[in-house]
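Sample log: diguanylate cyclase.
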Amino acid sequence: MDALRTFYARLPIAAITAGLAYYALAALSLYLTEGVSGLATIWPSSGVFVAALLLSSKPQRPAIVICIALASFVANGQANATWSDAALFTIANVCEALMITWLCLYGRASGQVGNFSNLRSVGRFCGSAIIGTLSAALIAGFLSGKLSVPFVESWATTTLLGTLIVTPLIVTVVRIITSDKVRVTTGNLVESFGIAVILIALSAGVFGQTAYPLLFLPLIGVLIATYRLGGVGTAVGVFSVAMAGTLTLAGGAGAVPLIEGGRNAGTLFFQFYLLSLLIAAWPLSALLEQKRRLIANYAESNYFLELAESAAKLGHWHVGSDGAELGWSNEVYQIHGLDADHFRPEKTGAIKQGTSLDLYHEDDRENVRTTLLRALQQQDGFTYNARVVRPDGEVRFITSIGEARFDDRGNFAGLFGTLQDITAQTEILEELRQARESALREAENSMRLAETDQLTGIANRRKVMMVLADAIKVAEAGGSQLAVGILDVDHFKSINDRFGHAVGDHVLQQVASLCSSALREEDFVGRLGGEEFLIVMPGAAPEIAKLICERVRIAIQLADWTGEELDLVTVSIGIASHRDGADDTWLMQAADAALYQAKSDGRNLLRLAS
């Protein structure tokens, strides 16, 4: 539609063009045929008006409305109507076109014109046209003071026919011309022109003679045009019949003017005839177009399905309800490593006697056989995973999913299943499983290293402080006891200075080991840094904490240090008990103060914070 938008952007040229087309058709209609109350038999100008609005954007419509309103005023004024009536009729014409356009485009966010190739759009357009023309007839009759059943009937039928015949023709042709997806060939143009000429000639002959009742022939012609050209054929066909019939009726020839009731009765009959053509042709056109789209979509879907099955290594198979007519697709043979002509069993001895089951891994055959027999007996769906062994010994992993088939009468007809080669997926899943396990091990190792003191092998400061924070939360929530102890190696700097850092490192390692051994199972110890260690004792009252820490102190004091040329290694410990509202900072400060007191009192002691 970009080319069309560009065209309408060159206003007022497009608006003037629409106005001139409206005026020419209106003047021609008024000149050729006049019906009840001076109204034309068919008002094709209304179709031009609606088509111009549908094919334009909102900013372009005011200029189009102005130009066509002027054309309507002049055309009506030059006819039998007074200039005041011409103005009133123009108002009604404008209201009619705007209402039809609004009803057709309401709810369409894109503002695109209606699509006359499906039943819903055709129904919406027809409904909009009926509402718009009836409303305009009432408006025109009320404003002009001519409101009556004959006036409303004549106005509504003439403008309705013009809208239903001309609007789809213009919109469809413009859409084809401006569409990038539709290729218009010389053959299409010649065929369309030929059909139009034939229908005009046929209709003129039918409406111009009185010997035979041949009004069914134009209907056949329109249906043939619809079958050959779709929506374009319908629009061109009905327009051709309407034009030929109008010209014949205007000349007074044929059987239609002879209908009892005079010219007005003949006019109403011809209008009813054209409506019948539209009712017969447009739904057929929509259904044919829908059928063409379904066929195209089906062909495209089959093409992509074949590509997908080939890429996915997916085949299908079926078996009859009595164990006969086993059928495999070519892809199933490929999966089994067989040529389609080499192995094509005609009976499900493949299932019952093991012909095709021999292709499965011996550990999977019984499961496959049992699964398929149960599905046949229960007339139900199934699924199984198994391994097939190709003639060259290669093992392939497959999965099969299927369901029971039933004929049109509901009788069980057998099983239908798909069979997919999932060897690559299985291998990838196995690799992913191994990679995941390796990653978990590495993550655990990394976490352990991140929380472990490299020298002593016990928890580092980060880890022991996390344990302390969790212990405080548990104590606060449950009201339980909690104590901590800060342990410091006495005269550690002197040990490093006298015996070297290697001896000092060994002392720290031994202290960590002795401390861990002396603690309870629920206690936790970590190195804070340097020669300081933190002991977390969940559930320990102050007296219990003192006993635990005393056991640690004695274990270190009584240890054999002669291997390091040391006579004695001692530690001092400061103990603090948790109180309501106390955090880890308070506990650490209290224990550190108690440790300072133990060192001040002579070392190799433990003190409890007050």
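Observation: Residues 118 and 287 are 7 Å apart (CA to CA).
Observation: Residues 262-312 form the longest helix (51 residues).
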